[in-house]
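Quick start: read one record
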Amino acid sequence: MIPPITEPTSTGNPNTEQFPSSNGRKLGNISGQLNRWSRARVIRSGRKLDRPPVHHQTATQHVDQLPKEINVSITSPSSSSLSSLEDCTLKESDDDDLVAKGKEIYMVSDGSGRTAEHSVNAALGQFEHFMVHRGCSVNTRLFSGINDIERLMEIIMQAAKEDAILIYTLADEKMAASARHACKVWGVSSIDILRPIIDAIASHLGVSPSGLPRGAPGRKFPLTDDYFKRIDAIEFTIKQDDGALPQNLHRADIVIAGVSRSGKTPLSIYLAQKGFKVANVPIVVGIELPKSLYEIDPKKVFALTINPVMLQTIRRERAKSLGFVEDEKSSYAEMVHVREELDYATKIFVQNPTWPVIEVTGKAIEEIAVIVLRLYQDRKQNSSIPVISRIY
């Protein structure tokens, strides 16, 4: 008998966190970015998390239909196993008839799972209105490094129990075929992200795919010039973080300017991984910006701005993580100081109209990077760009 998967696997995403149920157990990894408003609504409205009835599903009647390469024993889940499965049911305090049940999304990969995770997060961004207004949470669970049939069947069986959708990226055609067949047998909705793209490219190139996941022992990754360029860019960016070594700003491809906690460092590291040397310069009231910032090509400089309420929230969390207490004499997270810094930064931006001002509130690092790179390439190629005074 295959043991049930009762503990969720971490996605490795810094924006995911554990959502507690009413009895103290953890329901699994949930995207904090996509569910923070839902959790806030739960707290404000006084709703509680209840365990919904679990629908029993028998798989034994379909065992004979599984592919021959799936040599595993599959039995009906026991009542004790089913009792360990929990989900999120949110009940409106003012309307008992309105029930929003949490939905499960399983992501399975034979590699790191980044492709599946990024695809799912991008798609979920189109459903924030549903999760916010309906108060419905979406629990995403990533299972990476899945390279044997038995483990794959365990996950699909668990997905059937929890009525989850299975999204997978499996390079091995036999593994992918087994996943498709098992999902069909057990009634699990599934999507193979890679297969249509692989088939289309194979048809275009006239070559069969290797069927090996990235990072497999049989694959070779030559050290190209692009590889060394990225390593050099990352090393440069780390040394230039938070205004360090301002005399090297002329060596940077991109320079990011903004107040503290506006996302300069993560944006810089993300761009560095794409091969760009990035320096970031903090804007602090009472501290003059380095002269070298005004001496370099202004087309390199990009400014970040953020909503003051969001900035205050981020700074408060940062202060807590550093061990600051509320009664300490620090204005770092005070709204008056936050607005003062943002106003000070705005004045600097106005004095330098060639710096594009990017509004980062509610945007993921990837989204901000797309804007920066679009403007960077347009400037590099001397293409026409929108009026710089516009906030992107």
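The radius of gyration is 25 Å.
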